[in-house]
């Protein structure tokens, strides 16, 4: 009754006494419009809330997937003593070529899909798009992938080992240097270099070793290969040998047309343009999700399983 009385008073105010009997019979046009407006506002708020919730859930799922992939890469490394190459044909397995002269197995491409079947991880992110996988550029070079002084040697799988002619062993320090002449000039090696010393005695993985650059604070540009920078261009990490990227909710666009300027974040263009530079915005939300391994991560994992010891 109170609701009906309120409606009657509103009707009399808006339309006058002569419409009060019509108003008593049902809702007025103004009331219907107000009700529709209210419903529209509620529906819009619900859809917006649902969209935000859905994105948050998918973002959380994808972050967990990227972490699982990183863990999967480390497990693969500990078991096989090398990291896998990218999947080029989309079958979930790494793709390699074999050199005719020395039977060296090298990566067909430096980037492609994730070898998810071999890693035992998800093939696609929460938005249903494949994960992007990029490795050290020289891993697709048969002259570098088994070279103990190349970062790409973390991908060496088979074939004879190699090292540069300037590399050598310093008897006084009991250390191997990739450029023993420089080590002598710097005073790191006080005596003569043994250039005939072989740091590896087996033609089998791991082809890299603790001496493989970069070592310690060695940040030479030639050794960095892949790097991650923040929004201001400051370097967050270098010496990266394996990078995994989910392009997020606009992943389909990133895969098909990376140069399309309708992407949500201009920084994301750096992550799909095929080069060795990646961006991670730590100050504001970013649609891309990155995970990577650097040389120190690889060495640490091998030390944990005594992977540098001869089997």
Automatic annotation (TrEMBL):
Indicate yes or no for the key word Membrane.
yes
Q: Which organism is it from?
A: Hydrogenovibrio thermophilus
Q: Which residues form the signal peptide?
A: none
Does this UniProt record's set of keywords contain Acyltransferase? no
* Keywords of the record: Membrane, Transmembrane, Transmembrane helix
Q: Which InterPro entries match?
A: N_methyl_site (IPR012902), Pilin-like (IPR045584)
The major lineage groups are: Bacteria, Pseudomonadati, Pseudomonadota, Gammaproteobacteria, Thiotrichales
Q: Where are the transmembrane segments?
A: 22-47
| Protein name, UniProt field | Prepilin-type N-terminal cleavage/methylation domain-containing protein
One Pfam family name from the record? Answer: N_methyl
